[in-house]
Fold this protein.
Amino acid sequence: MFLIVSEVIMFLQSYNFFETGMSITYADIREYKVKIDRQYDVRRSKLQKLGYKLVKEYKKSLCLPAERWRDSKGVDRPYVSVGHLNEDGAFQKTTLAAINLTDDYTLTFKVSTVIDDQPLTGGKQFLSTISMLYRDGMLNVDVGHCQRSIIVAVQEEEDAFIEVCLTMKQIIISALSDTRLE
């Protein structure tokens, strides 16, 4: 008896869904698509803005001698830049505005930090992977392929990304460390 009643309830729920589904028009679908696209654009824009804020705070936290350094050919190069890895796996400088969100609505990018600014030997860089996403309404920043995940509670505050910056620098120092030299 219970089995029959539950089957009837499932049938009625399916029927109701079918009825509701039949009243959806192409205009409804198109309107919903526009709404979703708008939500995507807002999320992307918000994360890109926060990404720029993070990079600005990171540069400030490094106490750089200048915005740029000069290589042996006299070319001025930035100490810190943003980009992604291209198809060949090489770092390609770009703006955050050119980076799309992943399928799970995460903004993932690389921050290149020059670790040697000597004119003859300089240019060696360290790439930090940053992933920014909203999870349960909170901004989560994953640093270094999820080596550390940080919740940034109040993004509008000055130095909101201080913990993220510190983590980025600690990961660089850790990567450069070699116990064989101690």
Remarks:
- The CA atoms of residues 135 and 151 lie 9 Å apart.
- Helices lie at 2-22, 26-62, 162-176.
